[in-house]
Amino acid sequence: MNAPNGINLCKEGFVGGATAEQNAPYIFTTAEQAQVTADICYYANRGVKSANPNGKIVAPAPYMIDSLARNYLTSMYDQIKSGNMPTSRLDQTTQMRKIPASTNPSDYFEYLNWHPYTSGGAYTLEWVRQNEALYQVAVDHGDAGRKIVMTEFGYFDSYLERREILIGNACVPAIEVLADRLKTLETVFLFRMFNWTTPPTGTATAEQTYGLFDSPLQATAVRPKPIALSLFFHYNGVSANPDPLYKYMK
Known about the structure:
- It contains seven helices and three strands.
- It is mainly alpha-helical.
- It has one domain.
- Helix 2 crosses helix 3.
């Protein structure tokens, strides 16, 4: 909500180009972000279920797994458990809520979600603990067993061969340890399929090189990186034929 280009999601009074100090009164606090997010989730869930009773809502993801992410998730659960959510207009006659309050997290989302990025190679025990600590927030709020989907995970290689090799060796063990330690984890989405070779001027090299494959616009076209090969052999077996991965490589 506080992304630099998300000005319309800040409070009225936020001015693009102003200093952080000038805009400070118009930035949502963590508690306010959590309240808005929980509210959106509740009504999105109602809308989705009205059209498709089998539809599932995935909670919006913190993009890191640090203490700020834990504070945000804690605050969202606190809002849900407060008995004041979702927001609702009052009936003008009875002055009662038109929408009953709900303290059931399942009325807001089916899946927890976060992005467990790590800038290094092999995972660390601290990284594992940080992921476990986020799930523990759910447990501490009486929501043990809540399923998890991680909608982004990956590594940047900055066009460096040594980092490609490092990442190729690191990715599968990281996913495996997440699946082992977080028993309700169902899916990890890798970010991204191809390198991003048409970014705006000034985009960091790291941001361009999360691809499992080189970009079709690169000299090698769709070259599978070591990470793509590691994932392929892990999920298809070491004797699987990787030739299809090279079909569009120059």
